TrEMBL record:
Ca(2+) 3 binds at residues 183-184, 188, 206, 209. This is Matrix metalloproteinase-9. Pfam families: fn2, Hemopexin, Peptidase_M10, PG_binding_1. SMART domains: FN2, HX, ZnMc. Ca(2+) 2 binds at residues 166, 202. Exists as monomer or homodimer; disulfide-linked. Also exists as heterodimer with LCN2. Macrophages and transformed cell lines produce only the monomeric form. Interacts with ECM1. It comes from Leptobrachium leishanense (Leishan spiny toad). Gene3D superfamilies: Collagenase (Catalytic Domain), Fibronectin, type II, collagen-binding, Hemopexin-like domain.
Length: 624
């Protein structure tokens, strides 16, 4: 595995100074409105840091401190710095760096005994969310962070919504309910406790931080014509590929992105976070920067760090800061919630900090785009839990699959349709067509006991007891000749075994190899403004729920008409799932809502109990 570098440090960062050195033309020091200036010297700050992170402690039976020089040398050695024992610039920079809140030396409240869980199926609960990211993005970051550790150990991680979890996750500020308060923006990013009962095993994230995924790749746009959709990277503009926001094609310099893979074709776009659009913090309520602006008599045409000791980029939100005192901070890249969470979950599993700077468990935060777990992290976690057994897919969730019979031919109440199917005699397509390479499927459905994945005229089947991905695909036209290459959704009625397919404003009904259709969905009673049915959940009472983004309908399968009092709002009945899904289906007795590469699994009680990967958890592709 290549070097992983999500570097965080457990401990309290130095108390940061909110005032900053002023431009050299004036000896005056600026204190921004609403901020408090710190008078702490470098030595005082260093002493506080060394004490907070376990390097400096009171000698037993004495009121005097151990040698600061000795403590500095210990810290430098522990963090892989040049060991001088002096409070040099490299050491000061390290003390100012954002880090994890767990001490590098000594106990963190209850770091004693065997720091590991006595079971492998670890449960977790998300108590609340940061306003910086959409809940589904946060859920995905946590799923991927846990997956870092499950890929190399026998551990599995299951989200619960009730009861007592092993790992409780929350966002909090300052004094947030435990003995270790956060320190505001930057500094301490998060902390976690080692395995055990009560607060032990829990992970806390500082809500004063600006949480992102660290790269700007997942960017929620503003304005444009995509209703705040996320950027899609890479995207095509004027036949060129862009992997970041760009100002190409604009005379005003505003950064923008395509929200689909091809702007030339779809014309969907939004504007990326920019000081020309909005700001945060300060005293201007998110107003955009005004350029140029005057500060201490000088003119600035962009964001600046002048006047601040903390290195934050800021701007004036009026033309003259000197007279108006209005300012705000310019958008930054923030901290990768995924990387910080992966580090903190390492603590929650029993790992301490590493002195290897490229290891995930190194205390300081640093973003690296090509994330791979370092061998030091692997050796540490496998020492506690052992290596992962076998190459198989991740274990299933807590609910077992309902029993199904796949060898029995389906029966039907319709006398005009054959009860035989044609799939058994269909020859597969070129086996090099690998389902694991498909980014987003047209539709997914459980038909005749097998999970089917449809894409561009092909489909793959994953049998119920399969331990790996499907082999070669089959052609839709060979099995269901009447269907188009691209379908939107499908379902099988449990009672009659009839299979319904939807594509655009048309639908087909198959009974064995006999087909009825295509017919228009207006025959079902759907409004003319419904352009497609994007998902279907069959019920055992002869009903099926048909979804189209924000709305859903209940249809009587026998009468083939939607019931009165419909449509209803999806987010009211199915809270916690994205409304911009591209498919909904029933599998293993639970509802699955798909968005991009991910799915949200919901119980019949309408509780989301898992967010997972379509590729690994449903298609069962191997994890690399």
């Amino acid at each position: 595995m290549s070097v992983l570098t999500a570097l965080f440090v457990v401990g309290i960062l130095c108390v940061r100074s909110h005032c900053a050195p002023t431009p050299q033309k004036t000896p005056l020091s600026i204190i921004f409105p609403g901020e408090i200036r710190s008078n702490m010297s470098d030595v005082e700050m260093a002493e506080k840091y060394l004490h907070n992170f376990g390097y400096l402690a009171l000698e037993q039976g004495s009121d005097s401190h151990v040698s600061i020089r000795k403590a500095l040398a210990h810290m430098q050695r522990k963090l892989g710095l040049h060991e001088t024992g002096d409070l040099d610039q490299e050491t000061m920079d390290a003390m100012r760096a954002p880090r994890c809140g767990v001490p590098d030396i000594g106990n963190f409240n209850t770091f004693e005994g065997e720091l590991k869980w006595d079971h492998n199926d670890i449960t977790y609960r998300v108590q609340n969310y940061s306003p910086d990211l959409d809940p589904e993005v946060i859920d995905d970051a946590f799923v991927r962070a846990f997956d870092v550790w499950s890929q190399v150990t026998p551990l599995t991680f299951t989200r619960i919504y009730n009861g007592v979890p092993d790992i409780d996750i929350l966002f909090g500020s300052d004094n947030h309910g435990d003995p270790y308060p956060f320190d505001g923006k930057d500094g301490l990013l998060a902390h976690a406790y080692p395995p055990g009962p009560g607060v032990q095993g829990d992970a806390h994230f500082d809500d004063d931080e600006f949480w992102t995924l660290g790269t700007g790749v997942v960017v929620k746009t503003r304005f444009g014509n995509a209703d705040g959709a996320l950027c899609n990277f890479p995207f095509i503009f004027e036949s060129q590929s862009y992997s970041t926001c760009t100002s190409a094609g604009r005379s005003d310099g505003l950064p923008w992105c395509g929200t689909t893979s091809n702007y030339d074709q779809d014309k969907k776009y939004g504007f990326c976070p920019s000081e020309l659009l909005y700001t945060y913090g300060g005293n201007s309520n998110g107003e955009p920067c005004v350029f140029p602006f005057t500060f201490l008599g000088d003119s600035y045409s962009g964001c600046t760090k002048e006047g601040r000791s903390d290195g934050y980029r800021w701007c004036s939100t009026t033309a003259n800061y000197d007279t108006d005192g209005k300012y705000a901070f310019c958008p930054n890249r923030g901290y990768s919630l995924f990387l910080v969470a992966a580090h903190e979950f390492g603590h929650a599993l029993g790992l301490e900090h590493s002195d290897i700077q490229d290891a995930l468990m190194y205390p300081m935060y640093k973003y690296i785009s090509d994330f791979q777990l370092h061998s030091d992290d692997v050796q540490g976690i496998q020492y506690l839990y052992g290596p992962k057994q076998g190459p198989g897919p991740k274990p299933p969730g807590p609910t077992k699959k309902p029993s199904t019979t796949t060898t029995k031919k389906p029966t039907t109440t319709t006398t005009t349709a054959s009860t035989t199917t044609t799939t058994a005699s269909i020859d597969p397509v070129d086996p090099t067509q690998d389902a694991c390479n498909v980014k987003v499927f047209d539709a997914i459905a459980e038909l005749q006991g097998d999970l089917h994945f449809f894409k561009d005229g092909l489909y793959w089947k994953v049998p119920a007891k399969s331990q790996g991905p499907p082999k070669a695909p089959l052609r839709i036209a060979d099995t269901w000749p009447a269907l188009p290459d691209n379908i939107d959704t499908a379902f099988q009625d449990p009672a009659t075994k009839k299979i319904f397919f939807f594509a655009g404003r048309k639908f087909w009904q198959y009974t064995g190899s006999s087909v009825l259709g295509p017919r228009g969905i207006e025959k079902l009673g759907l409004d003319k403004d419904v352009q497609a049915v994007m998902g279907a959940i069959p019920r055992n009472n002869g009903k099926v729920l048909l979804f189209n983004g924000e709305k859903y309908w209940r249809m009587d399968v026998k009468a083939q008409t939607v019931d009165k009092d419909y449509p209803k709002n999806t987010d009211e009945e199915f809270a916690g799932v994205p409304t911009d899904f591209h498919d909904v289906f029933l599998y293993e007795g639970k509802y699955h809502f798909c968005q991009d590469r991910f799915f949200w699994r919901m119980t019949w009680r309408k509780q989301v109990d898992r967010v997972g990967y379509i590729k690994y958890d449903l298609l069962r592709c191997p994890e690399h």
